Structure formats: C-alpha cells, structure tokens
Amino acid sequence: MSPPPQELTTPQTNATSAAQQAQSRIGILIVAYNAVNTLASVLDRIPTDFRSKVTNVFVCDDHSQDATYLVGLGYSALNTDMPLTVIRNPRNLGYGGNQKAGYQLAIENDLDIIVLLHGDGQYAPERIEDLVGPLERNEYDAVFGSRMMNKGGALKGGMPLYKYVGNRILTKFQNRVMDMDLSEFHSGYRAYRVNALKSIPFQANSDNFNFDTQIIIQLHDSGKRILEVPIPTYYGDEISRVNGIKYAKDIVTDVLRYRFQKRGFSSGELSSVGPWYAVKPSSDSSHGIILAQLRQLPPSRILDLGCGAGYLDEIARSYGHDVTGVDAFEAPGVRTRVNRFFLADLEKGIPEKAGEGFDVVLAADVLEHVRDPEKALSEIKHVVKPEGFVVASIPNFAHWYSRGRTALGLFDYDQRGILDKGHVRFFTRRSFQRVARAAGYSVQVTTPVGLPLDVLAEHQGRGVEAVRKIDRVLAGFRPTLFAYQFIFHLRPRDPDVVETM
User: Fold this and answer.
1) Which numeric CATH code is attached to 6-262?
2) Lesser CB count within 10 Å: N end or C end of the chain?
3) Which CATH superfamily, name and number, covers 286-492?
4) How far is CA 287 from the centre of its chain?
C-alpha cells in the first residue's frame, strides 16, 4: 500500500468547482537529450483520458547528437490527437537551461500548470494525474514525485546503491540546513503552477543539474505550498549524464549559499531577507548600544530618520520618549510603533511637518543611503536643539570583510550589511568624521561595534558568545579593521569655533 502524499507547508486551500478545474490550461514539458530510443514510449504512456485535458506538450530536444528531434516530429505527424510542439535547441542549453526554456514557453502560452517529464522514461507518465490534481484544485503551488516515500521501492526499482545512499545523505543535509522535511530533493518528476514559477527568479538559476535544487530553495523561500506524492522507481539502460561528485558539490554550495543569503549576504537569487531591518537586541550591537544610551535620558523628543518598520522606536517609546519617524517607505504597522510618522524621501530633505526642536535625532544606518550625507547632516542642524545631539551609525568599509572581498576581486553588493545594495556612499571612521565636521558638528564620541551576530547566527549558544567576545576584543584593539560599524555622537558646533582633526 502506498503511503499518503506528504505536505510540506500548511495548505491554504482555495476550493474550486469542477468547472473551474476543467478550465486549467495544462502543459507537459519533456526535456530530452539523446532519447531516440525512449521518447516515443514516454509519449505513448501519457494516459489517453488525460490527453484531452492537455493544452500543450512541449518536447525540448537539447541539441541531441542522435535523431531525437526527428522521432518527435514523426510522432507529432502520426498522433494528431496530441497538441505536440517539438523544439530543437540551436545549442545544448544544459539540463537546467532546457527547463528554463520550457518554463518560458509555459508562461508565454498562458498555461496554468506545467508538468516536467524526462524523455528517457525514468519517470512514469502513468502517474501524471497524481501530480496535477492538487494543482488543479489550487491546493498547492508545486507537487513533487518522490521515489523515497515507498519504503524500499527505490532499490527494488533498480536505483543503484551508491545513488540511493547519496540521495539520502544529500536530502538529510538539505532538510537540516533549509529547515524542510522533504523525503527527496532529487526527483525530476514535478508539476508547478505557472504563477508560482513567474514569482521566482528561476531564469537566474544554474543551467546544470543543480537547477532542480535551486528551484526548490526559491519556492520554499517565497512561502510556496509544496506537496510530495509517491511515484515508482525505474532505472533501465539509460545513460546517466550526471557527474555525481560535481553534482553533490553544487548542491552543498547552493544550500550554503541559501543560508548566507538568508542572512543578507550576496545579491539574493536564492533567498531574500525582506525590505525591513530587524532589531539587533544584544547589548553590544548597534541597536543595543543606541537603546542603552536612550534609556539613560529623561523623556525626550526624538526624530528617527529612516525609521524603517519602527521596531527600535517602539522600544524607545517604552522608555518614555516621544518619537517622530520619517522614512521613504511606509512599513506595515509603523504608525503603531511611533507617535507620528511622515512619509518622505531624505534625498529631498526633512519634511517641514516633522517639526523642529528635537532633543535627539537618530540617523541609524541611513546616511550611507543618501547621495549627499553632508547636506543631510546640515539640514538636521535646523531641527535639533542647540544643546541636543545626533546619533549616527554607519558601516565601516575598512572592515576586514569588505577589504578582503575587494582585495580578492570579489566586490559586489549584498542584501544587507556593509555592502548593502541600497548603499550609495561608503565610509571609514576618518571619512565620516570629515563629513560630520564639514557639516558643522563636533564629534563627541565614537563607538566601535562588532559583527552583527544577532543576525548572522541563527542560534545564540556558547560558540556564538565566544565569537562575540573575541570580536569585541578585536574591535577595541584595532577598530578600523575589526569594527563592523561605528556609532557617532555629534553636537551642532558653534559656527565661530573651528575644530581641527
């Protein structure tokens, strides 16, 4: 008896009528390479009663070295009941590249569902309705056929022992790192809702065999609903074109890339961190240091420029402060976390409605996002009290991370951190002090801040605390190299006083 389908996310079922299901435009993508002996059989095995539901069948011949393309054309001529389109790629696109081309065809032909089949006959077309049904009912966004759900079925079906062991090891590793619970990551029998494919950047994925893992990562990261259903295993005389060592290396690399991108590193093809910064709660983080300083103040009027979602301000208000927030974008719930909020782009100046006479102006992680920080600081002088001060935190471009990336010729933008893709200015401690003084401030205090381990480390255990202590010592010993950020306390300077560096 086959095990039941396994769901990977809690489905948010949208009930659809039988009439609506019948309207689904379904396509089948058959990726084929040197499949002259198997392609016709795969097409024959598509259930007759299912064919009437199919809008398009795309056979994508990936520039085979045999007569695969001619077999497809001949089959199309003899089987006019199947809406078959046979395409020969002008060059070999690779396994992933061939899928990209096929999914683009599905999008261009306005399909609702696309099923991936292999032209070598390794996956059973007879089970196609098991994959399509949940998508027709709009219960899931992707359905994967799994050879591992039938206990012992993979080996009985002829899967070589080394492939079985490798499959299990890699799947366990991927599940652990990605916090998933798939029975198999490495099946090529899949069906997708085309809208789900349109919502992820699959065109940026690899052209090689690790494409299948990358698309799972993207679906998972975007919260798509995934279901597994059991399928039989069949290994015949087909030639495996997968280099196992390279494949395993690519898979491990992709999964680790996902974890790094989840923490804000790299540009985010596999995972995005979202638009809003979270509060870093530890006492030696930039947020922790700023909040500790605000806690020592009597109830004050605070202007937070670039307030984001207002999480920091919510805590500041609990200390008795009155907080006005300004940002170019309105995050969900921000108005509930500040006393008042103004939507404004700091590139165009501080909005007059925000007022003036503030005791404290926060410019935390914001001045690196404006093209003229000296001008922005000059404008802040008009809204802060003469006896008030500005708290500015900036990333340190001279940190070992950005230095190392640049020295190795790997300079590129990340989603977060020193190389945040939203940064238009880069600072060192000295260069920012120069900008602040030119804008008419005296630099009262400069505090080095270490690595943002609250964000980088998912679990805060003893190992993380040990790293934190070492990093703190190094940042104090040589801040220009080991400080990830600097926090500056700036006071408006009397224009008659000349400050030297």
Assistant:
1) 3.90.550.10
2) N
3) Vaccinia Virus protein VP39 (3.40.50.150)
4) 24
Unique residue bearing structure tokens 């198999």: 184
Higher pLDDT, 353 or 23: 353
Residue 217 in this model has a pLDDT that exceeds 70: yes
pLDDT at residue number 244: 75
Report how far residue 234's alpha carbon sits from residue 153's, in angstroms, rounded to the nearest whole number.
Answer: 10
pTM: 0.68
Per-residue pLDDT at 257 exceeds 50: yes
Distance CA 456, CA 259 (A): 10
Rounded Cα gap, residues 234 and 232, in angstroms: 7
146 close to 228: Cβ distance less than 8 angstroms:
yes
Q: What share of the chain in percent tops pLDDT 70?
A: 87
- Give the whole-angstrom CA distance, residue 71 versus residue 197: 30
Q: Which two tokens stand for residue 204?
A: 């940026």
Which amino acid is it at 352? E
pLDDT value, residue 13: 38
Q: 280: which residues sit within 8 A by CB, 6+ positions away?
A: 286, 287, 288, 452, 454, 455
In sequence order, the 6+-apart residues with CB closer than 8 A to the CB of 456 are: 263
Q: If we measure between CA atoms, which residue out of 213, 240, 239 comes closest to residue 99? A: 213
| pLDDT of 15 above 60 | no
Structure tokens at 190: 């899949």
Query: 86: exposed, middle or buried (C-beta count within 10 Å: 0-12, 13-18, 19+)?
Result: buried
Using only C-alpha atoms, what is the Rg of the chain?
Answer: 29
First to last CA, the chain: 80
Give the angle 81-84-90 at the CA atoms, nearest 5°.
Answer: 160
Q: Is the pLDDT of residue 240 over 90?
A: no
From the list 161, 162, 142, the residue with the least C-alpha distance to 221 is 142
Task: Report how far residue 348's alpha carbon sits from residue 328's, in angstroms, rounded to the nearest whole number.
Answer: 10
DSSP 5: P
Q: In what side-by-side order are the strands of the sheet with 142-146?
A: 6-7, 226-230, 142-146, 190-193, 113-118, 26-32, 54-61, 84-88
All structural domains of the chain with their residue ranges: 6-262, 286-492
Of 108, 117, 109, 57, nearest to 87 (Cα)? 57
pLDDT (0 to 100) of residue 279: 64
**Hey, is 464 helix, strand or coil?**
helix
Residue 47 near residue 136, CB atoms below 8 Å: no
Confidence of residue 35 (pLDDT cuts 50, 70, 90): very high
CA–CA distance, 68 with 61 (Å, rounded to integer): 7
Condensed to tens digits (0 to 9), the pLDDT of residues 330-386 reads 999 999 999 999 999 999 999 999 999 999 999 999 999 999 999 999 999 999 999
* Calpha distance 19→368 (Å, rounded): 55
Looking at residue 458, its pLDDT comes to: 58
Q: Could you tell me which of 232, 195, 226 has the C-alpha nearest to residue 212?
A: 226
